[in-house]
# Entry
Amino acid sequence: MSSEIKLAAKKQQKAVFTIGKRKVLRKLLFYTTLGLGALIMIIPFLWMLSTSLKEQGATMTLPPQFIPENITLSNYSQVAESFPIWKFLFNSLFVAVSSTLGQLLLCSMAAYAFSRLHFKGRDTLFLIYLATLMVPLQVTMTPQFILMKYLGWLDTYQGLILPGLFNAFGTFLLRQFFLTTPKSLEEAAFIDGASHFRVFFQIILPLAKPALATLAIFSFMQSWNNFLWPLIIVSNQDLMTLPLGLSNLQGRWATDWNLLMAGVVISVIPILAVYLFAQKYFIKGITLSGIK
Amino acid sequence: MVGDKGWKKWLVICAFLLPNFIGFLFFIGIPILASLGLSFTKWDLLTSPEFIGVENYKAIWHDAEFWAALKNTLLFIILYLPTVLVVALGIAMLLNKKMKGRTFFRAAYFIPVISSWVAVSLIWKWLFNPAYGLVNYFLSWFGINGPDWLQDPNWAMIAIVLTSVWKDTGFVMVLFLAGLQNISETYYEAADIDGATPFKKFLHITIPLLTPTTFFILIISLINSFQVFDQVMIMTEGGPAGSTTVLVQKIYNHAFRYFEMGYASAVSWVLFLIIFIVTLVQNRLQKRWVDYEQ
# Structure
């Protein structure tokens, strides 16, 4: 009898032990997979950094040096001497910040009109706005280029910034948000004799902060990373943004990877810094907009 | 004021709407119509445009390069889309558990998303370097002699697809994560009581309830992949031997290299039409597989 109980207890112990072991094994597999994936995501960036710190010959060795034997910053100074890289950085920043601020103002104002003001043809006009969202950029880029040419806006900041300000997406996003905010506050303000402008700036906009943050991140990223439009309208180096400038670096130093990677590092760092500060908004923004 | 009548009311409307509307008309509305008009002309920007009817569209029909570009774009989509969906869903499933280091992993997968395409393409061009790139070095550990990725017509598109999957996984993953978090825990609890295996739960709960998200991702990714350009421009410029020339590359070449504004516009309208039809078909088909019952 007692031996039977002992045997059962032993069996149970063994079972518990296998379950525990399986659990550990599963956890191990779980973290290994995730870790491996994360490594694949991060290694290219580390490799970029490592290459940018290498001397000329050290990029072409086998096996590759993961940590450079002689760490040098000379690539960065050479990039800065040969290209106006700080100018690229400034241009990118200037264009991205002005596009973002411009879009926030223009889109929120139009969104207010589309959600709060009543006039004939409002919904038809909004539908037309929406319909243009389906038209790919490639359809408008040729006439836009011709327009820029005739306005004399090739190689200008206004040419870089203005056409991007008017995408219907921002208006759409903010209108949807305004529609969900309660009207009681504004109605009270109107009774107190407030104008539409006061209501807009002092009630609507403060309430819309999350949506505005989403749109801000979205338009900043879009503008910061834009390549095709600057490629089309800018040929003067002093007006190039970072992506276009980088592609020029490639034209000059096709195989000098240490120099190229130094340029790439300079272009990646600012947006990475912004991202690490505002990670939550980035992810929210992407989820909401579904657009890169 | 709410009750304002007449010119005062219109003044308010104009003040709010006009700045946006004028720009919209100027930079979006008119260009769309102009592009349609241009597609019926021949114009090199030097002489005046010449109306040629549907000649451009006829020319496209007989343009072998157009069909090659369409084929390359479709090849890109066929290779890229399922891969990025499966990889991103897998990672999203793993990250959808309460666990240590979740924020770190999510951040890691997201870094490529925020980097510019130009930066990412340059990094990967270096990684794909046949002699000194890391990709072939890692392959050599397994005794594999890696190809000359970007110079080999058989491999160049695959290299571009791999780069694109790498860059976009984080983006698609975040969308999937949002969808997964919308699935109520009660379904899984009920399945647990019935003794369902993890695989069965995945197949019968996760997949069906995730279809609205999958549909959304599919629509967006498909539209985006028809417009693939930046990575191609930086990594191969459409080569070698035209093996990676995609539709947008072709539009770019005609408009800004050969200055054939009319022809470029016509190709862009064909692209628009393709995207439009594909999106429409997807919308029609969604009833068959998208499950909105939640």
Notes: Residues 2-52 of chain A form one domain. Chain A has two domains: 2-52, 77-289. Chain A touches chain B through 93 residues (CB under 8 Å).
